[in-house]
């Protein structure tokens, strides 16, 4: 009986257990179905699968588009939601990104096939082109806007959007059309070199640059934002490169705009600059949480932004955008290079590092120029904002909030004033895209006028064919609005940036003489009436057409102008230096071709015009190419020097920038200069490091004017070093101590006696900041020995010998006065910490060290940019001039370098002479033993 009862109870328990288990399974199943159905909805809060080891968010980031056409900004989020609702697949986007971002160039597919695959993928993702390839082919290319070593950018006219202007002036009655720009692939040498470092196959690596343009097409089509340039159409039909539109493989059509330049920014009203800065902040906020995650723009420049309709600033280049954040194992790997700012390592990635990169790059290159020189009422607050940007301790959201509040401070009436400045820019762009036929007419008129004037001017030193006053129809026939002055030489696309500035009354800035004029004639009249004015720069390629122009007046008319698109340099012709008066004449080398090119070459009694600055531009282009090719080698040398100077992990440019912007709080170790007539000395200054992101704690400041030491001599040696890529001189940068700091320290008697006589009228103390010498830099032995004759057999140098040969080369080029047994360095790397003794020994000769027939390849290639021509290719003619130009551009004066029996004009000759002697030996070695044996 008892057993039966127990059995019944057991059966009852089993039924309960079975019921509970079944109910549990049913509950789990229903919950799963509920969650699955919710995920299937197009909810803006839904989370998508991982892609590339991170979780991209395809929903639109919450944007604060409160100002300036909020309806347009609302369309951004609506468009992204529509993309999701229309069936945009995560896997499809992941496939596209995997296709366009191969792990290595070695594993990359043929770009010709990738372009076809990308076209199909974008159609599947509903990212089709608004224009067909047939419609794009119907356009006519009207001319080049610009080009680089990666892309061609050309102008188009849309025949569907035209209208005729009727202002009563037949000369101005021209058909205007909607302005478009087309971007296509060029021969990308940089990407080819990067590819060949992984796989040495020129044919394979040649077309790899197409990947960058394909990335840009996809990103501009996928990422929709008011501050990204509008992609109006694209064509993907292979990797063919051609100047014929119908034969181009990759093509993208965009809206046209006016590129931002420093001159453009300087001409804008403050309120408009703030609005443009807000546009940039909106874009930064969007990139922080874009549909593709946190996007970084590590190499964006001011010129990458353009002004388009409705005063909107837009970014044009996305080919180098980085979509994934740095992989990591620990947070110590997530420190921004060159600073102490870092982020946390989360789920294998440095979360938020791309945001810091954008803040540093965009803040320095774009926001700083836009927000510089604020009006007095905003100067303190804007200065604090820029300081936070430089210290990388502000988020894009906070930046947007601040700039929105700043914009609201200005009443609507000021927009009318700003609009005038903007429309001037707009008209400037329109003129750049005008009918080519009218431009041809203008050029033809100029050529006819030049032919008439040529006979009369043949005997003069400079032909008036180069004189200002070109480009306007009818002006050559005496129209007053287009002057033809006889005392000015016109140099198109040229500038003296950072050179020869002087203060004047009514200037818009403190650093120079900058004014606004209505006509070119008014600018010339002002220069004629100002005894300090010897030349001036107009920020326009066609100043004759401008109704308002920004003009920067200069105090000199000699030197080597920079090539600078969008500017025009006017030099007073009657004061233009002759060959004998050229201050940079190389007395050590008779051939000074820069000065010779100013004259006309006469052959068969016919005057042949030569561009006086063609050699300068050619040299500058050669320097850029050489540095691009040797980029990795130069970066390695810089890294070694910074580590040995106690600045491991920092970049020199970041150190230089930190030295200039950081606040000096104290000093120590004042060392007055000794010697008869010596003034100044050196001092160790300490910086405020309380805020985040500091890259410098102290620096050595020197301002020396003595018989054996001089800070200008140090600067000359430094510029030779960096120009040739040697990196055997400590990091240095020209700068000044503010008047407030000088006044604070002047109470010390030692300080006052050392530097008091060198303080400028504005209260500042100008000199050179140098990285302090660390304790590990000690006296070292120079193991390399000079030879009297070239070796009969080359013995390959070891690492120490190579490093010391480069040290000796700089020792000679800089004519540094030091005992031959006094050298300092670390681990065989000798460093010229005593470069302030530069050019104290003009008579030294160290060419015996180069008879070993070993020479650094990076230096040899750079020297090729400075070779003489006209039968003197084994000599150097331009190196000294370029070094002096860099010195004067930085604000230092050769006149402050006092060396007995050496004049200001002799320094280029000393540099060129030593370099020529070295090059002759190296060329002889290459002739005897071959390049591969001699160059390392």
Explain briefly what this protein structure is.
With 936 residues, the protein is α+β, with helices and mostly antiparallel strands. 39% of the residues lie in helices and 15% in strands. The chain folds into five domains: 68-163 and 175-256, Phosphorylase Kinase, domain 1; 258-434, Transferase(Phosphotransferase) domain 1 (Transferase(Phosphotransferase), domain 1), CATH 1.10.510.10; 460-576, Hepatocyte Growth Factor, CATH 3.50.4.10; 619-644 and 776-936, no CATH class; 647-707 and 732-770, no CATH class.
Would you write up a description of this structure?
With 936 residues, the protein is an alpha+beta fold. The strands form seven sheets. It has a five-stranded antiparallel sheet. A five-stranded antiparallel sheet has the order 11-15-13-14-12, sandwiched between helices. It has a five-stranded antiparallel sheet with strand order 18-19-20-22-21, with helices on both faces. β7 and β8 (312-315) form a beta hairpin. α10 runs antiparallel to α11 (353-371) and α11 (353-371) runs antiparallel to α12 (376-390).
């Amino acid at each position: 009986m008892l057993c039966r009862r127990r059995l019944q109870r057991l059966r009852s328990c089993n039924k309960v257990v079975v019921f509970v288990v079944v109910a549990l399974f049913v509950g789990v199943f229903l919950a799963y179905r509920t969650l699955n159905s919710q995920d299937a909805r197009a909810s803006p809060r839904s989370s998508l699968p991982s892609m590339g080891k991170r979780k991209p968010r395809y929903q639109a980031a919450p944007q604060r588009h409160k100002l300036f056409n909020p309806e347009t900004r609302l369309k951004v989020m609506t468009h992204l939601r529509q993309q999701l609702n229309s069936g945009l697949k995560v896997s499809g986007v992941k496939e596209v990104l995997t296709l366009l971002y191969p792990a290595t160039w070695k594993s990359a597919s043929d770009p010709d096939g990738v372009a076809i695959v990308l076209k199909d993928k974008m159609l599947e993702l509903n990212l089709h082109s608004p224009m067909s390839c047939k419609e794009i082919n119907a356009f006519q290319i009207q001319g080049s806007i610009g080009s680089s070593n990666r892309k061609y950018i050309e102008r188009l006219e849309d025949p569907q959007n035209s209208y005729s202007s009727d202002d009563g002036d037949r000369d101005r009655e021209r058909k205007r059309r909607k302005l478009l720009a087309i971007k296509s692939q060029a021969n990308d040498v940089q990407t080819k070199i990067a590819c060949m470092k992984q796989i040495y196959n020129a044919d394979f690596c040649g077309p790899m640059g197409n990947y960058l343009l394909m990335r840009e097409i996809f990103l501009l089509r996928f990422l929709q934002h008011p501050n990204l340039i509008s992609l109006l159409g694209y064509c993907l039909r292979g990797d063919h490169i051609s100047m014929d539109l119908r034969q181009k493989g990759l093509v993208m059509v965009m809206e046209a705009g006016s590129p931002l330049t420093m001159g453009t920014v300087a001409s804008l009203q403050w309120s408009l600059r703030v609005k443009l800065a807000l546009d940039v902040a909106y874009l930064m906020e969007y990139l922080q949480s874009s549909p593709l995650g946190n996007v970084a723009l590590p190499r964006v420049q001011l010129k990458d932004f353009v002004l388009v309709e409705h005063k909107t600033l837009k970014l044009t280049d996305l080919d180098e955008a980085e979509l994934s954040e740095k992989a990591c194992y620990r947070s110590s790997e997530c420190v921004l290079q060159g600073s102490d700012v870092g982020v946390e390592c989360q789920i294998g990635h440095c979360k938020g590092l791309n945001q810091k990169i954008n803040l540093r790059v965009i803040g320095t290159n774009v926001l700083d120029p836009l927000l510089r020189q604020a009006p007095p009422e905003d100067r303190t607050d804007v200065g604090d904002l820029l300081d936070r940007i430089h210290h990388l301790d502000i988020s894009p959201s906070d930046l947007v909030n601040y700039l929105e509040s700043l914009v609201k401070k200005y009443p609507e009436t000021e927009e009318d004033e700003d609009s005038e400045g903007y429309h001037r820019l707009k008209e400037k762009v329109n003129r750049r895209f005008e009918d080519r036929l009218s431009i041809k007419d203008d050029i033809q008129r100029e050529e006819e006028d030049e032919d008439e004037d040529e006979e009369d001017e043949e005997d003069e030193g400079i032909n008036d064919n180069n004189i200002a006053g070109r480009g306007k129809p009818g002006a050559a026939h005496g129209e007053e609005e287009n002057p033809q002055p006889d005392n000015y030489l016109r140099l198109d696309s040229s500038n003296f940036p950072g050179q020869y500035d002087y203060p004047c009354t009514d200037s818009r800035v403190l650093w120079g003489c900058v004014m606004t004029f209505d006509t070119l004639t008014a600018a010339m009249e002002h220069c004629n009436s100002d005894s300090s004015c010897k030349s001036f720069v107009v920020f326009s390629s066609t100043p004759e057409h401008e109704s308002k122009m920004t003009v920067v007046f200069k105090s000199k008319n000699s030197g080597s102008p920079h090539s600078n698109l969008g500017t025009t340099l006017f030099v007073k012709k009657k004061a233009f230096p002759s060959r004998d008066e050229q201050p940079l004449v190389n007395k050590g080398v008779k051939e000074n071709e820069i000065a010779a090119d100013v004259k006309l070459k006469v052959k068969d009694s016919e005057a042949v015009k030569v561009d006086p600055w063609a050699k300068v531009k050619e040299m500058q282009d050669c320097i850029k190419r050489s540095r691009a090719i040797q980029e990795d080698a130069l970066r390695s040398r810089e890294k070694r020097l910074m580590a040995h100077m106690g600045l491991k992990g920092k970049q020199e440019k970041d150190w230089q920038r930190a030295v200039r912007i950081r606040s000096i709080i104290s000093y120590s170790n004042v060392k007055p200069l000794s010697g008869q007539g010596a003034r100044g000395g050196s001092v160790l200054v300490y910086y405020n490091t309380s805020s985040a992101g500091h890259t410098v704690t102290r620096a050595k400041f020197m301002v020396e004017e003595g018989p054996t030491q001089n800070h200008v001599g140090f600067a000359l040696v430094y510029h030779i070093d960096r120009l040739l890529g040697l990196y055997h001189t400590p990091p240095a940068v020209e700068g000044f101590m503010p008047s407030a700091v000088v006044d604070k320290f002047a109470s010390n008697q030692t300080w006052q006696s050392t530097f008091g006589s060198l303080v400028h009228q504005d209260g500042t103390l100008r000199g050179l900041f140098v990285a302090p010498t660390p304790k590990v830099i000690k006296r070292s032995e120079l193991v390399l020995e000079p030879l009297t004759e070239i070796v009969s057999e080359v013995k390959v140098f070891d690492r120490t010998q190579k490093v010391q040969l480069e040290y000796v080369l700089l020792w000679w080029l800089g004519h540094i006065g030091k005992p031959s047994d006094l050298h300092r360095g670390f681990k065989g790397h000798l460093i010229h910490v005593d470069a302030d003794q530069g050019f104290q020994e003009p008579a030294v000769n160290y060419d015996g060290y180069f008879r070993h027939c070993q020479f650094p390849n990076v230096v040899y290639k750079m020297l090729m940019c400075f070779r003489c021509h006209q039968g003197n290719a084994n000599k150097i003619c331009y190196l000294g001039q370029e070094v002096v130009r860099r010195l004067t551009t930085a604000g230092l004066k050769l006149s402050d370098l006092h060396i007995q029996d050496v004049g200001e004009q002799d320094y280029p000759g000393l540099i060129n002479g030593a370099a020529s002697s070295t090059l002759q030996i190296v060329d002889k070695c290459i002739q005897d033993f071959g390049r591969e044996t001699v160059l390392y």
